[in-house]
Each structure stands twice: as structure tokens, then as C-alpha cells.
Amino acid sequence: MSLRLPATHAQPPPAEEHDSEGESSSEDEDEEETWDDWVSDSMDRRPCKSLFEDKTFDSVQEALTYDESTHKFNLKEVTSRLALDMYQRIRLVNWIRKEHPTPSAVIALNGSEAFFNSDEYLKPSLEDDPLLQIVPDDSDSDDEETEKPEAPKDLRTATRRIAALQRKLEQSKQDLVYYRSFVSERLNLAGLADELKESTAASTSTHVAVPLRDDDSHYFQSYAENDIHSVMISDKVRTATYAKFILSNPDVFRDAVVMDVGCGTGILSLFAAKAGAKRVFAIDASDIAEKATQIVKDNELDNIITVIRGKVEDIKLPDGYDHVDIIISEWMGYALLYESMLDSVLHARDRFLRPEGIMAPSQCKMMFALCDAGDLFKERIGFWSDIYGFDLSAMAKHVYDEAVVDVVGPQTVLSEPVLVKDLFLGNITSKQLDFSAPFTLVSTAERRTKIHSFVLYFDTFFTNTGEPVPADTNVYLVRDGDPILAEVWPVGGRPHQPRRMSTAEPLKGKGRPKVTSFSTGPASEPTHWKQTVFFLRDPILAAEGTVVEGMFKCRKSEDNSRELDVEIHYRVKDPEAPDAASETIVQLYKVR
Amino acid sequence: MLKDTVRTGSYRNAIVNNPHLFKDKLVLDVGCGTGILSMFAAKAGAKHVVGVRILNPWHASVDMSNIIDQATKIVEANGFKDTITLVKGKLEEVTLPFDKFDIIISEWMGYFLLYESMLDTVLLARDKYLKPDGLIFPDVATMYLAAIEDSEYKDEKINFWDNVYGFDYSCIKEIALREPLVDTVELKAVVTDPCLIKHIDLRTVKKEDLTFTVPFSLTGTRNDYAHAFLAWFDILFDCTHTKVKFSTGPHAKYTHWKQTVFYTPDTITVSEGQKITGRLSCAPNGRNPRDLDIAITYEAEGEPAKEIQYKIFHFD
Q1: Would you call B12 an interface residue with chain A, using a CB distance cutoff of 8 Å?
Q2: Rounded CA separation B175/B163 (Å)
Q3: Whose CA, among A28, A308, A485, B282, lies 20 to 30 Å from A284?
């Protein structure tokens, strides 16, 4: 989905957010806009036109009240009776404004009209229409989710509502058929399938078994497969950086009690044990925990490492242990937060980490930049327009609705990256993982070009003290062929040469922690996280110095807590006329 | 998958270049996906094409359920609204606008030909909807086996687990070995002649025939060592005028099916002109029919026979 909002809607971010360093990305609770109110409250106090007459009122409310009293048309009632979603409601308003139907014609709609699905009516018929920008009374749907719509007043209304409900029932029945076959094939539960079949066959039955949604079991299942562990362990940038941090900080790990959250095959626990940990608790909820147990034993470290199978929310530590000194975890997902294992890590921190204990990694920074991924664009979008002479471009549509995880080269980045989220693991809370951050990107394109995407990636930092890294810390970029492990580990049979620490080693006592880090950005050797690319329906026409400013919003999806909803608002400032108003474009994405 | 030019191009040649077979015929596209094969058939002159979006023999993921809507848009955008009808649902349950069809077209093949394939559904469609002298596109599939030299990659993929950053991970190695690897192999890695292990004629094959045990005999083409067996398949449109065919073997152009590699625990010594003999058996897993159990027993000259059980299992 993308929407264009008129220039007047775009609010210039507060002055300090113009800071091109991106340091001040709305971390403060006060400043942070919540997800729901990003269309400003003042919106419904803007002049609004009646739906049926050429009369303008001082506010949305007044216009709606007028339409109701004069034309017996209640937009809210129609929206709820036809069970319209946000986009259908937008289409309805635009349709009325464009086609000028009579109020009774609108009231007679049954919800299956073609325009409810037409993209044409997503375009505002009226420039800067405040009716499209207000959130349709969210408070109602929150509190009254179970409440029935008010009883129909006459037979016609009742008939229409029955028709609407019948359509919904048909849809639900169809969904159930899919779901049934999905369940039976996927889980191979013949018995359950039969049970579901019976319950649909006996449609008069009031009882329909609806399986509870379980976002977790699939996730834990797929991690039990060994291939993914091979992929992750073979990600040298990832594993070697963890190894480097753990093995080069024996003073931190010696005699420490360590917890490894989501231990997988246990590699981080093994590193910790090698680095001198007194005791390591390796936690994993998937089947791989059994393999981890075996591996620990094979390596004769079972006197130090204890593998505990279970979710970190449910487990108990052995007697005598209440707290740990260090929590290590490799929890990062695509776009950093996809799959959200971070919640479990934070839970473990709050429950088990002693005060002043160390989180490893201690900090992640989400970075955002302009990106000209031309090849990727051709592959994912251009490709479909001509397949053996046929036009299949309908297949490309979802590319604009879902983030694309892929590697883009360093040369594709067309701005300095800016920080959109700084997660300090020492104190961040789950709630703060839904966030919005303003950004200002300055194009470095050498010639005039169309920019088709933004790129998002993250940098990960470890400190020997668990403190935040100093603001001027640069992330360490692993480049192709770098002997990243040479400092700490004998690679390829080469004996480990103890040597003087490199000059990059900060001097003790200067108040700077020792930092180990890696980047998943385009400038680094690719990792299994790759980068996350957001394709734009409306490309940005940019030259050197073109400023793109906007807002990056990210939150857990309501449908599946391991998925993310991302919303990007942006507008382009013409370098020739920086003060001229320009429209803001909003595009929504799923990360999954 | 449309990016697989060998696959899509072969279907196009088989269909579009044979209008004499398609003219005024009723065509059923089993598992129509984006509708591309249906459009080929329409272009070849079919009277009417019915595309069935098969819900999930194996892939009922949520985002696939709207592919039919996209396919409908595509069909409309290309001007075939009146010639192509798209239907979604299970073949056993959907109602089709015609009782019998002249031609069934389908792209049903999976990795190792049979893994997560829709062949069962195609056979069902054949028995229920195909006219007695009807045609099936494609109508013949053949599977082949050879042995390959692959020490470097085996080290990377399998022996990797012997030493992971200095730790012993060999218990993972055993699982890794039992999971065939879908990958592309260069022709020069092949150290024996290929051996045909299974011939499937879609006009006559029965579902039971897809559980099988077959003997093989591989003759060495040079003195070398083998680290794995390699399987692939060829597809033939036997009813077409020029007998269109394509191969997914190591000698042929890349396809998304690649080849399937079965690593052996031990290295096999291969001598020119000498034989490695054995048996390959293939069956859907009893507990989870989506998975495929494959066993290979082999005997190189002068060596005792060995048997290894493999499993191609679901992984997303």
C-alpha cells in the first residue's frame, strides 16, 4: 500500500531531529510518537466538505453531522454495517466524492460493489481531504470488539446486513476449507482433519473448533533442522565476531556464570567455556537442544555447560543459581527485529542478569539509507512485465508490500546511512521495540537518477563492560578475504601467535570500553542476514544534495508477532527550492 | 520458477509450437500457478483452458492463496478472459466447467523428480478428467544416477562438522550426511556413465509405481575417487511433433531443480571400465508422506556392500 499525503500534512520534524548525524532518533518516551496518533489530532479540526453538497464546514465532525441530519447518511454506521476495512472506507469516500451518488444510493450499497476493490478509488478525489486522514474512531473498535452492531431498524437494513453476513460466512467457510487442508497436510493430523470436516459438514452445529494461533511452534520446528545451523555457523562474520569478543576477553569471562539464550548447537556456550566461564547455561526451546547436549558432551565440557531445553520464560536454573553475570545471545533476525527473539532475551535479562551484569551483544544500531538496487529491481519487478510475450506484472505487486531481503552491493548506497534505532540491550524494553524515527537523507548520487528503494541494516556492538559504545565509535567492517579470526583463533592449522594487541586497543582506565563489532551493511562482507530493501512505488528523483526526509516506523505485526509492520513516510526536498511544499508519500510493508 | 528458462521455454515449445494438437481442444492445467501454461495453451488455439490452482499438496502457505487472484488479473491483462477459467481448490473437491478434457498440461516435478511433487494429483486428474485418447504434457519422465568426485565440497558441507572453530560437531555430521543436497554439479565431476533408474510413462503409471526399488550399475569412466551419488531427471513431451525434451542433468543448462547429491560416508575408489553396482529404493515416509525415504545400497569391486538411508525432508 502507498498513499500520497498532501504537502500540508507533512509536519516538519522538530529542529533537533534535523541533526544529520541521526543521533537523536526519538529515543525519549516523551518525544516518541505512538503508532496510532501519527495523523495529527488537529486533522479533524481542519475544514471539511460535505459528502453530498458543495458546503464546507470547520471540522470533520461538523461535516459528518450535517450529512447525517440533512441527508440521513451516517458514514460511521455504513462503515460498520458493511464491515469495511480502512482501504474500503477510503475508497467509499473517494467514490462518493467522485461519482456524486445520491445519499440513498450510498445507503443501499451492499459492500460487494466493484469500486470497493478498485485501486482507482484509493486516489483522493478531493485534494487534501481530511475525511481520508482521520482514523475512523479507533476507540470504539478497541473496547467494543465483542459488541454486536446495533439492531437493524427496518427490513431493508436487516436484509442488507444479512447479505453482508452471508458473504462473510461464505468467506469464512472457504477459509476453513483451506485451513483444514493446510492443517492436515502440514501437520499430517488425519484425525484432526476429520474432526474439522465433521464440524463443517454439520454446519448447523454451533460449535466450531478453531485451533489457537501459535506463532511459536513453526518457528521452533524450523530451527530444529540442522541446515539452518550450518548456515548460521558458517556465517563467518557472525560467528567469528562472537568468538573474537568472547575469546579475547578472558578477564570478563573467567569464573563468570553465563547464560546463552537460544543456544542452537551451542557454539557460543563452547566459546564461553573455553574463555574460562565457571558455569554456562545454554537455553533453547527447539529439538536442537538435544544435539547441543551431545556436542557439549563430545567436547568434554559437560562439567561446565548445562543445556536446558525450554523457553527462557519458563525455565528454572539449577539450585544455587539465581543470577548470571553475562548473557550471550545471537538473537538478531532479518531487519534486526524480524522473528523477535529479542523479547525472550530481554525477559532473560530482567529475570536472571545480576545488576551490572553484561549483555553480549550490548548494542545494535539500525541504519537506513537511500539505495539504488537496480539489478535487484529488475530481477524482482521488471522481470515480470514480459514473460514469453505475456504480461505477468500482477505478480510483482507484492514486492511493494513486502520488504525484500537480499544483498545489495556497497556501490548501491546513495546516501550516508542514518541511525533510525539505537537499541542498548542494557535497558531497552520490549515496548520500545515498536518505534518511529524521523530521518533526513542527503543523496550522494553523482548524476540525476531515480532511486527505487531504501535499505535497512544493523550494526552490532559488544563491549567488555556492557556499557554503551561511545558515540564516535565506528563499526568494524569485515571485507572479503580479511583474516577475521587470526587474532584469537588458529585458522587453517596456523598456530596462534600471541602478539602485542593492535593499536586499536583502547588504553585501560581512559573510560572507553573495549569494543568488538560487526556490520550487516552493504559495505561489509555479506552475512546471512543480508540487507533489507524497501522498494518504492513512487521512485525518488534525486541528484547530488537532494534531501529526502521522513519517518521510519516499525512495529510487531498484529497478525503474527514474529513479523513486522513497517511504514515509511517520505518527501523529497528540491535542492533548488528547499522551502517549497512537497507531498509526503506513505508506503506500508510487511517483513516476513 | 518462471526464471527457469529451460523449464518455461520447453513448455512453451511443446505447447505453442504444436497448434495442431491444441486447436479447438479442451485443456486442463493442473496446478496452474501464475497461469503461464494456460496462456500458452490458449495461444496454441485451445477452445477453452481450465486452470486449477491446486491448494497445497505441500505448500499451503498463506501467501500462495491469493496467487489465483493475481493469475486472474494476469489472464485478463493478456486478453484471455474468455478462453481461460481459473479455479482454486482441491482437485477432488472442485467443480470444473467440463466433465472431460482432451489434454492435461502440468508442471508437477519436484526436486529428485518426486519430492513434494504434484504427480499424484496429475494422475488423479488423468483418471477422472482425461478422455480415453487424451494427451498429457509432459508424458514421460526418466530418472538417472551416476557417481561424482566431490571431495572439496564434501569437506565444506559434511566434514565441516568434524571441526567447528576447534570444537567437535561430528554428531551433526551424521544427520547432514543423510540429507541429500540439492545443488548444481559440473559435468567434469561425474566419474561414471549415467544409469537410467526409473522410467515413468504418465499415460499408464499408477501411484503405487512411485514407491520402487531398482538396481543400478555404474561403469567408471576414469580412475578417480567418488564421494557421492548424483541423481537427476529428464522430461519428454513425447506426443509433440519434434518430441520436445529437456534434462536437469549436469550436462544440461541450469534449471531450478539442479541435481540431487547423496554423499557416501566413505570414499569409493573408481576404476575405468569397472562397475559399481547396487540398488536404490524410494518411498514416501510412512509417518510423513511429504518426506521421501531413499536408500542406496552399493558395492564397488572388491569392497563389501554398504547401505545408507537418506531422507529428503521438509525444510523452509
Answers
A1: yes
A2: 15
A3: A485
